[in-house]
Amino acid sequence: MPAESASQSALLSVRGVTKRFAGVVAVDGASFDVAPRSLTALIGPNGAGKSTLFNVVTGFTRGDAGDVRLDGEPIYGRSPHAIARRGLVRTFQLTKALAVMSVLDNMLLAAPGNPGERLGLALLRPIWRRAERAARERALELLDVFGLSAHAGDYAGTLSGGQRKLLELARALMLEPRILLLDEPLAGVNRTLARSLLEHIEALRAERGLTILLVEHDMDVVMRHSDTVVVMAEGKVITSGRPADVQRDPRVVEAYLGAGASSERRP
Ligand SMILES: Nc1ncnc2c1ncn2[C@@H]1O[C@H](COP(=O)(O)OP(=O)(O)OP(=O)(O)O)[C@@H](O)[C@H]1O
Ligand SMILES: [Mg+2]
User: Fold this and answer.
1) pLDDT band at 96 (very low <50, low <70, confident <90, very high)
2) What pTM was computed for the model?
3) Whose CA is nearest to atom 3 of ligand 1?
4) Domain 1-97+177-267 sits in which CATH superfamily?
5) Nearest Cα residue to 27 out of 39, 15, 9
């Protein structure tokens, strides 16, 4: 992979992204590619800069430098909304479902906005009615896929932690993403649910051609499910490649050991 020029075949191409917080270089010239339909894992010790990189790539944090392209189109510095509309959608480490809203309304809230309604253009009512109906159908179909149909009318706040994780995934899919960025989707999730979440993620890839970029600390999961691993340490991408090769890479082992022998999140 050439260091500076964007790869032609990449769906997502990240070049030289840098983000500083007072005194801390959280992300330091990070570059990597995500191939279409791949499941790419972004790993690294605590504080390596993974979440910050996600925030810059998805427009939630303004970077200090860099270039990010989605299918060749520049998205660096654009708003999260504009980036999501182009097909790059993320979930958060903490789930953002609104507790006092029904599960179905949470889904509909995630649907792409409706300009007619926003502008109060009564003339367009038939068009937005149709859009609303389509969004509703899509929401119900996704709730069915994730086994949440029975809870459509319940307040999201009554869902279990695991069900909220599923809802978060389902909500992200309302935007019909081309690439989904997941920041530790399995954190705090029991084994059974983790397996179910992973099955859903695999199915999304196989059946909908979705590309996935995933921050994950569980190395068993990374080894078993990803086809490419990108490793960050101290803000830099130190290497990337196939899981088995990366696991053997002495730089990777050193990065984890260097991050503190007390860390329980080692490969
Ligand atoms: N809003 C912020 N203000 C100041 N420093 C920040 C901010 N966000 C992150 N940092 C710092 O930037 C560095 C990278 O943090 P980041 O959360 O991106 O790491 P991470 O790889 O996601 O870690 P983890 O695996 O623990 O989630 C850390 O030193 C962190 O303290
Ligand atoms: Mg993080």
Assistant:
1) low
2) 0.86
3) 21
4) P-loop containing nucleotide triphosphate hydrolases (3.40.50.300)
5) 15
